[in-house]
Structure to design on (287 residues):
């Protein structure tokens, strides 16, 4: 394993492909099946399907594969939307076209960032005196943090509450699998929050859901939050951090020592859209 001080972007990308793709992405899913080279996860409470993979051979019949996925989820009344996670460095130039032909819609592209925990800790910013950083230690504080994220990202109150319910349930059942960190402002309200997931069997911790209230940006809150999560990751023996980020958080993560290694573009299919003209028999294997 190369030193975290000397590792290159290409080496980070290789580690990402080896450790963080496919099975590692669906460990929290209640149900997972294999469809050819794919991992297809179902989250019934969210009405969500999720599709990922480590690699798809260039000679694969993409039309048939995508058709099998849509047929699998379209037959499940609990699922009303499906995300197929694509990566920009995969050698699959026709995949986006095939997905769109089968009713998927490409959403905003995000940048996949990776970097050593030490760099994020070194980049820590000093919080303003009237703000305080804390680890969420109750269901109520997790709900506060998720409510802030919902407001920042424009989620509906119902969607935000649903996500909070899932995180609280996960915290009650698997408290060691993640931590929620938050920053409270002068009045005690949560003004910045973010989660760190500890990915079992890997050298990585994932940074997810980072959000900061618009009125409190530019004051070092997100960098302090990132450093706190990096320290937790380091205590758990993790060497690297990974995050899928928007154009707004990318500069902050770059200052924290993370580098861009690829992009990811969600392709989303929603219930009621056409299944597609290339439907074929399903080839699903339960896990």
């Amino acid at each position: 394993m190369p030193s975290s001080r000397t590792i290159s972007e290409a080496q980070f990308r290789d580690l990402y492909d080896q450790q963080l793709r496919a099975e590692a992405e669906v460990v929290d899913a209640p149900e997972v099946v294999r469809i050819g080279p794919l991992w297809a996860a179902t989250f019934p409470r969210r009405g969500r399907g999720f599709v990922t993979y480590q690699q798809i051979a260039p000679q694969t019949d993409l039309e048939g594969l995508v058709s099998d996925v849509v047929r699998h989820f379209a037959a499940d009344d609990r699922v009303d939307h499906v995300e197929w996670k694509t990566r920009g460095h995969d050698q699959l130039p026709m995949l986006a076209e095939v997905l769109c032909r089968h009713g998927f819609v490409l959403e905003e592209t995000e940048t996949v960032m990776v970097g050593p925990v030490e760099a994020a800790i070194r980049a820590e910013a000093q919080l303003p005196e009237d703000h305080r950083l804390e680890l969420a230690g109750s269901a109520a504080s997790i709900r506060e943090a998720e409510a802030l994220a919902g407001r920042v990202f424009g989620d509906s109150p119902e969607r935000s509450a649903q996500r909070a319910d899932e995180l609280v349930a996960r915290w009650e059942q698997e408290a060691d699998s993640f931590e929620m960190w938050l920053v409270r402002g002068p009045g005690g309200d949560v003004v910045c929050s973010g989660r760190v997931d500890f990915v079992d069997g890997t050298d990585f911790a994932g940074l997810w859901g980072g959000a900061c209230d618009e009125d409190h940006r530019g004051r070092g809150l997100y960098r302090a939050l990132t450093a706190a999560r990096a320290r937790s990751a380091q205590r758990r023996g993790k060497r690297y951090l990974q995050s899928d980020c928007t154009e707004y958080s990318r500069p902050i993560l770059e200052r924290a020592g993370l580098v861009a290694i690829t992009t990811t573009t969600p392709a989303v299919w929603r219930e009621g859209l056409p299944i597609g003209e290339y439907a074929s028999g399903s080839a699903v294997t339960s896990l």
The two ends are 31 Å apart (CA to CA). Confidence is low (pLDDT under 50) at residues 276-286.
